[in-house]
Amino acid sequence: MAVTESAPAVAPAAQVRNTTGDAADKGGGYEAILRRQSQRESAARTYARSLPIVPVRARGLTIEGADGRRYLDCLSGAGTLALGHNHPVVLEAIRKVLDSGAPLHVLDLATPLKDAFTSELFATLPAELADNARIQFCGPAGTDAVEAALKLVRTATGRDGLLAFTGAYHGMTAGALSASGGATDVRVTRLPYPQQYRCPFGVGGDRGAELAARWTESLLDDPKSGVTTPAGMIVEAVQGEGGVIPAPDDWMRRMRRITADRSVPLVVDEVQTGVGRTGAFWAVQHSGVVPDVMVLSKAIGGSLPLAVIVYRSELDAWEPGAHAGTFRGNQLAMAAGTATLAYVRENKLAERAGILGARILGRLQGLAAAHPCVGDVRGRGLMIGVELVDPDAAGPDDPVPPAAPALALAVQQECLARGLIVELGGRHSAVVRLLPPLTLTDEQATAVLDRFADALAAAERAHTPTTGAPRTTPGPSH
């Protein structure tokens, strides 16, 4: 089955005719809608501040705003929209449920839709896990699934502590925040996450990953480290909000050995990396690691709220009702999710993401050679980050220039002015992140890269990079 979505024609902003419906006009226009949002919604809103648009229609990669402008969406609902906006197979699955008369709200009762979703999901999992797995529907968001995973391993082991990593992001509820970089919890031991560009040990590469692994082993094996055997370790195979940092495959395998040898459950957060995003159906498959618990959300619901954990049956120590949630039986999400999982699998979109992502990285690395403000280009599949820096501020003892968050913000705004939606992330909000749908065509990829290159050049000309303080926590997306 071939991918047939064609690249929609996207005119320059100044040439786009206002073709929106009546909804925005009845409310006084899109500017009035934005004004009312600012007046009514909390100060915690994030995306709305940097992306002041009012979407009214969308298809595939393209969003049309209430002002008549069209945008190429490389945010994709923070990675939720594996097939882009309103993909036909997703819409058809939803319509079938609505037309069938099936109940939409069933708590955790068994339904044909749930059975079909679970069967499709299990068919995509690492075989060693799927053959001996249990699933818990958590709903509705990834952060709820993280909470469930932490509760599960604490219940199963009778222990309380947790191993997590610097730069991590696992959600915004209390337990998930405690495991995220930037949060503080005495029950969480923070470990170094290996990275090439800003290695915490200053060496990078295989040596940096080896030192990070040794640090972990030392903390667990030294009786005077103050770290008792934890309930579990939670890790992202690619840190998303932390700046698009892929974990080395050998290091991931090392974490699996370290945890298995010490009977510590390994929890892998695949909320953003899953369903083909990184070039494999699940990011752990790059390293061949089989975790004890997988945390899944975002794309598994086909654009609708759905979150689950899948785990080894030996950990299933819960009593009935030990973990619940009113909306864990979202039938529309299960139908949309089944359609999405099947489409990605049947059309080999994970493999396609790996091939196209490598091409995009190559083009971006070419940009880096021509723009000193691009410190690093990295990613895996269609999960890509461009870190912007102040090249004139590197010190003699630190060849890596400081991050340039103000420049990154300027690039994001220049992208928006050219009809391209991108996200910022990383320790200092200085990483421009690209998360296009897996249905991205070659033509669309070229359009995205052309607009990004133009925006980068414009921002670089107009802006003097300045460093800024890092965010307290990464931006919310679970």
From TrEMBL:
Record-listed E.C. numbers: 2.6.1.76
Gene3D superfamilies, sorted: Aspartate Aminotransferase, domain 1, Type I PLP-dependent aspartate aminotransferase-like (Major domain)
Molecular function GO terms recorded: diaminobutyrate-2-oxoglutarate transaminase activity; pyridoxal phosphate binding
Cofactor dependence: pyridoxal 5'-phosphate
Organism: Streptomyces gardneri
Name this polypeptide is given: Diaminobutyrate--2-oxoglutarate transaminase
Gene: daT
Catalytic class of the enzyme: transferase
Metabolic or biological pathway, per its Swiss-Prot or TrEMBL entry: Amine and polyamine biosynthesis; ectoine biosynthesis; L-ectoine from L-aspartate 4-semialdehyde: step 1/3
Keywords from the named record: Aminotransferase, Pyridoxal phosphate, Transferase
InterPro entries according to UniProt: Aminotrans_3, Aminotrans_3_PPA_site, Dat, PyrdxlP-dep_Trfase, PyrdxlP-dep_Trfase_major, PyrdxlP-dep_Trfase_small
Protein family: Belongs to the class-III pyridoxal-phosphate-dependent aminotransferase family.
